[in-house]
Amino acid sequence: MRFCKLEFNDEEALHPVTHIIFCTLSAGVNTGCTEWDFKKKMAAEVKTTTTGKRKHFHLVTFFCLLNISCFVVPATGFALKTCKISSNTAKCLKSEVVPQDIPSTVISLDLATNKISKIKSSDFKNLPLLTQLDLNRNFISQIDNGAFSDLVSLKRLNLNNNKLVQLGEDVFNGLSNLTQLRIIGNRIKVVGATSFKPLINLKFLDFSHNKLQDVKKVHSIIRHLPNLQELYIKNNHFTSFHSWELTNSSVGLKYLDVSQNPIKIFQITADVLPNLTWLNIGGSFVKHQMRWDVKNKTYLGRVSTVDMTGVQMALDDIKLLLQTVNSSLTTLRMNAIKHNCAALINISCSIPTLSSLQFRKYKIKHVGSDLFKLCVNLTQLDLAYNQIENISDNTFRSLQRLRILSLSHNRLSSVPAATRNLSALAELDLSSNRISQLECDDFANQTKLRQLNLYLNSITALKECVFKDLVQLQVLKLQSNRLSKLNGAFKDYLTNLRRLQLNNNTLTTIESGEFTGLQSLQNLTLHDNQIGKLEKGCFTGLGNLTDMLLQQNQIKEDELNPHLFNDLVNLRRLNLIDNHIKYENQSVLPYAPFSQLSLLETLELTYQRGRGKSRLPTNFLQGLKNLQVFKIRNIQLLSLNKDIFIHTPQLQELDMSANEVVGLTSEWFKPIPNLKSLYISRTSLSSLDFLIDANLTKLSFLQAKKNKYSIIREEVIRSVPALVYLDIEGNSFRCDCDNSWFLQWAKNSSTTQVFDAYSFECNYPVNFKGEKLLSFDVRSCSVDIAFICYISTTSAILLFMVVSYTYHFLRWHLVYAYYLFLALLTDKKHKNKQVPNQYDAFISYNTHDEPWIIEELLPKLEGEQGWRLCLHHRDFEPGKPIIDNITDAIYGSRKTICVISRRYLESEWCSREIQVASFRLFDEQKDVLILIFLEEIPTCELSPYFRMRKLLKKRTYLSWQRAEKHPALFWEKLRQALRTGEDHGEGVLQVAV
Q: What contacts 312, CB < 8 A, 6 or more positions away?
């Protein structure tokens, strides 16, 4: 926000009022000039000026208040060019620069996968609430110093996978609240000495896959990070790791990853990592071996997790490494190490505290019975990706504490008998093997098993007895097999099962009573099968089921009946997408298919296959009084009965896109006033006018793209006051005045985002086809009230200034001009009357000076000198207008004597008398005016009339005050002036006393 600054350098400085015009004209509608700040600056400027200027300050304040454009900052619009906003999170695509139209209320900004090459210092100026910024996968090679300085609330910053080579000294200025920083996959070689100094609250730093090459550079980074807990610097081409390179700057570290570096020696000679609990020293592609040099076991005395995946190290050094953490290690990942498997396992299991061992990628085809004899303390064992084909029956006999066993991604053809010895086992993973058949004793003695993964095998059928011992099983994953029959495997035994996944098999029928033993089941996935028949009572026993997925099967409408769902009293979600459910007409069904599902919240029927169009029966949704989400996208729907939604008063989301619904009216939506999201894209709509009377006051999300309407009326938008997101791309918009209101609203609305509005194109009229809709100039369509207000306000200010200036400096000149005009009119009226001179002189005086007239003037001029005088109180004709009496008296006298005093100058009628006499003087070029000053009056106090007289001719005047010592001379001079002839030009008598 800028201010209108006024400057007064001296007494003759520019008048303060003119500065407000500069403020108004230069600021326009984009300059903010708040009344409070304006007054404050004005007060500072005018405190040393004169009283007159201080008075003008109040006028200036009034003008700034009057001119609204001086201090109102218009709101920015919500129609973004490349971004989409949802829940205060902005996602931007196809950007080559950081978008500048992001609303300041955004909390999370996702700029990943764009083409941004540079971050400028002005890119994030208006995002004070931003807490998360994702710049992953761009082409950023340069970040200006201080580019993030305005992101005072930022906590997470992602700069992964860019082209940064160096970090400047002040690149992270302002990020004092940042807690997570990721700079993976760049080319950084150089880091400024103070680059990371502002990051005083940073806890997580991932600097992996760069080119630092020297651990000393790491020290220059972390020495400024007092709260750093996690440091990931893998694959930075470090060839050594020495504790003296870190000194005491790393004492707070808990997680350290130096894997994939060609480290030749890992040496710790001081206690620089006292709080470290997680260490990854995995190997790299370089063939030379790493040497372990940590003599004192206390230096890594708290490390509980070590990852040695792929490390190239001599067996003795591996022993030394594990001895270093012998008293604290609980988790060890020893994957793909080129040493004897048995030796590695024996070394690992010699650690008394070890409870979790990951041993992958060793190509062990046969697992012998003695391989894990020392691993008596293990509770977790991961043997995935080892190409295991068979396991000896006694292999796991010593692992009586084992709770989690993973044998996934191997080549097992059956369930190993060795697992039956693991009575404490709670989780068994046999996924991605070659198991084709399950036997009744495969899981014998597994009474504590809670999760069993058998997906991605080749199992074709189940046996009724196969799960008989799994009484505690809660999760069973059998998806992606070749199951065609269940054979009663779920009729008994699995009473505690919560989740059953049977999707991606070849099931065709769900038989009656198939799941009667699954009283605790909550989630059942049967999608991607070939189910076409659902026998009566097939879901019996599933009283606690909440989610059932039946999409991508071959279920027809005939299979849906209320008896089918009788037992699913707690069902919340039912997915029937991509089946064959179609109805030929809207006739009321003899039974409502979902009438028993009173608690159902989500019903999905999207994309129903089969020939012909479909309709939904009037009572199709009967009984679904708690339904909140209903999806019928792309079911070739032709029409809906206006009463279909009377059964679903709680509906909040409706998706009916990709249909050809005829006769869409507001009546359909009146029963569902709680609707918040509506999807009606590709429905051949020619108008959105049905929303006007639909009473959808809670609608916040509307997607109506790729339809046939061309105009968005104001009434439509006003009818959905809660609208936050509007997607109407792909329509045939008109670029004319019918859309003028919508265009302005789309640009300026601060509450509703019109998605991708800047990409909308015009289809009509022809001469605008292909042009951008928001580029259409709507100024010719309506009166710009704001501009008119601006012009009228500015004009009013100018007029007020002119009037005030004229009144202050020229008001007497205006009065003079007024009287001169009156005199001109009077002269025109009397000029040709040829009135004879009745008097020698007309006496113009103020009544307060009447004593001097009576006592001094009359006795001398009439009594002694014999002149005929005209006095208004004696000689004016009664009943005649005063101005006519004055004019007749002046033009009927040879001379006019003006007896001037301060009172005279203040009298309106005296002013008129002297004006008429002056005009006669100017018009006739005769010296007919005699001035007598009764008192000394400085020139500066004379009214403009007398200054005008002084400019025209030399004065004929007398001063009574100066003649007090020589009165005889005064009267003689006056007599001579009265006797002087009426000569033209400069031949007037000059008398002065």
A: 283, 284, 286, 287, 288, 289, 290, 338
- pLDDT for 835 equals 54
**Residues 195 and 307 occupy one common structural domain:** no
Domains: count for the chain: 3
Pairing of strands 240-242, 265-268: parallel
Last-in-domain residue among 329, 358, 382: 329
- State pLDDT tens for residues 97-130: 999 888 888 999 999 999 999 999 999 998 999 9
Rounded to 5 degrees, φ, ψ at 475 are -130, 125
Contact 567, 544 (CB under 8 A): no
- Structural domain contains residue 479: no
Q: Is residue 406 part of a domain?
A: no
Residues 186, 221 within the same domain: no
pTM of the model: 0.72
> Residue 483 and residue 783: Cα distance in Å, rounded?
72
Domain presence at residue 234: yes
Claim to verify: residue 264 and residue 190 sit in the same structural domain: no
Q: How far is CA 312 from the centre of its chain?
A: 51
Strand-pair partners of 331: 305, 356
Cα within 13 Å of Cα(826), Cβ side: 25
Buried b / exposed e across 24-62, counting CB within 10 Å, b at 16+?
beebeeebbbeeebbbeebeebbeebeeebeebbebbbe
| Structure tokens, 902 | 């301060």
Residue 756 lies in a domain: no
Q: Are 494 and 467 in contact (CB under 8 A)?
A: yes
- Asked whether the CA dihedral 540, 546, 549, 554 is positive or negative, the reply is positive
Looking at residue 861, the DSSP 8-state letter turns out to be I
pLDDT at 61 over 80: no
Measure the CA–CA gap between 574 and 636, rounded to whole angstroms.
Answer: 20
Whether residue 843 is found in the same domain as residue 975: yes
Give the integer Cα–Cα distance in Å for 886 and 844.
Answer: 9
CA–CA dist 368, 948 (Å, integer): 129
Distance CA 490, CA 915 (A): 121
Average pLDDT taken over every residue of the chain: 84
Give the Cα separation of 59 and 967 in Å (integer): 54
Report the relative pairing of strands 701-703 and 255-257 from DSSP bridges. Answer: unpaired
CA distance 352 to 329: 9
* 147 and 264 housed in the same domain: no
**Which CATH number is 862's domain given?**
3.40.50.10140
271 and 305, same structural domain? yes
Query: What is the span of the domain harbouring residue 840?
Result: 835-979
- CB count within 10 Å of CB 283 equals 22
3-state secondary structure of 534: strand
Give the integer Cα–Cα distance in Å for 233 and 184: 9
Q: Are residues 165 and 214 in the same domain?
A: no
Which tens digits make up the pLDDT trace of 397-420? 999 999 999 999 999 999 999 999
Shared domain for 97 and 127, answered yes or no, is: yes
Q: Collect all residues with Cβ–Cβ distance below 8 Å to 989 and sequence separation of at least 6.
A: 927, 956, 976, 977, 980
Is pLDDT of 807 > 80? no
Domain boundary among the residues 146, 177, 202 is at 202
